[in-house]
Amino acid sequence: VPASTHGLIGDYGAGAGILGGTAALFHQAIHQAPCRGLHAYEIDQQLHKHIQATVDAVGKFYETSGHDSPKLDLHDDFLDGVGRIAMGHRAPGKLVDAVTLNPPYQKIGKASNLGQQLQAMGLNIPNMYALFVVIAMTWLKDEGSLVAILPRSFTNGRYFREFRRWIRSHGSIDWMVRFTSRSNRFRRDNVLQENVIIRIRKGVPQQAMIRVTSCPDAESDPTMDLDVPASTIFSPDLSGIIRVPASYEDLAAIQKTNNLPITLSDLGITVTTGKIEEFRYRQWLESTPSDANVPILYANHWDRGEHAITRLGHRVGDKLPFIAINDETRPRLLPAGHH
Fold first, then answer.
1. Taking a C-beta distance cutoff of 8 angstroms, is the pair 23, 11 a contact?
2. CA dihedral 35, 24, 130, 167 (to 10 degrees)
């Protein structure tokens, strides 16, 4: 949290206010100056009393050091901020000095009222967590810091390409912490993705080095923690992919790839992820071959280092290796041929 004369912290999607309260305590400890207020949003009004209790606990600590308790400015629906952005307004009252963010994970349908409103504003944002970042950055002071806990899905893929460009154009990514476990400890949502914690400083040119930390989970010591050149993290092409290495081996692979003398596009080759996401089609997965199903190809079916696929049809862990052919799965299947 940057030093400030008034030290206002935003906590959007506050839950019980733990992140905002912790940020307020760190602000006091680091700067020997109190956080003057906590600007919080939480749509679940049953949690409002818990947010107040958290701020009260922080206030008791402040009082022992001779400072006034931070004032709580509490609201419910953070998505009201969409309308404020559309009208050219910013946050109610003063802009905040820092933001802590543990946003909800929920897709935004293009045909929904919210999706259409965003498209009218020129914002192509596919998920609620990305929208929370955009609004929070709009309400943040220049040179202020945003620290957010996010699913790693935004770092690649075309759906989040414009969001990645938006982040890059509005500040400097200074630190990324990757949790390699998919236990999703930070949210109650059933999202089987790795989480990352990202720190962005608003209105600051991208710094040459980014600190990258990797941990199995939030309770474990880091297995990697070092400064990495931003040119290694950010892909140079229009995709804007953000590479977050999980290990020193990952980092070496990224660096080796970056140094290759020719690209896939130079060779006329494109790459896509698999069209079948088996967890979305569990009811159609089968264990044995038949005339009514086809095999699913996994990387484990290759012989390592060889140009041969010898284990097609074998189970990979608990994943069933065949999928039934029907109206739901047929559009996702590939015809026989070279790919």
1. yes
2. 60
Identify whether the C-beta of residue 245 lies closer than 8 Å to the C-beta of residue 228: yes
d(CA 43, CA 47): 8
Q: Which residue carries 């946050």 as its tokens? A: 91
Q: Amino acid identity of 296?
A: I
Cα–Cα distance measured from residue 46 to residue 58, given in angstroms and rounded to the nearest whole number: 20
Query: Other C-beta atoms within 10 Å of 302: how many?
Result: 15
- Tokens coding 319: 């994943």
Task: Decide: helix, strand or coil at residue 266.
Answer: helix
Structure tokens at 280: 């979305």
35 and 94 in contact (C-beta within 8 Å)?
A: no
Place of tokens 């050149």: 229
Q: Which strand (E) or helix (H) includes residue 294?
A: strand 293-295
Tell me the C-alpha distance between 309 and 304, whole Å: 9
Is 52 in contact with 40 (CB distance < 8 Å)? no
Please list, in sequence order, all residues whose beta carbon lies within 8 angstroms of the beta carbon of residue 39, skipping any fewer than 6 positions away.
8, 9, 10, 11, 73, 91, 92, 93, 96
pLDDT tens, residue order, the chain (339 aa): 555 556 888 899 888 888 888 888 877 666 666 778 888 889 999 999 998 999 888 888 888 877 788 888 888 888 876 766 654 545 556 788 899 999 988 899 888 888 888 888 888 888 999 999 998 998 899 999 999 999 998 998 888 999 999 999 999 999 999 998 776 555 545 555 789 999 999 999 999 999 999 998 888 899 999 999 999 999 877 678 999 999 999 999 999 988 899 888 889 887 777 788 888 899 999 999 999 999 988 888 887 767 788 888 898 888 899 999 999 999 888 887 777
C-alpha–C-alpha distance, residues 12 and 84, integer Å: 15
Please, how many CA atoms are within 13 Å of residue 300, restricted to the half-sphere of its CB?
10
Token couple for 2: 């940057």
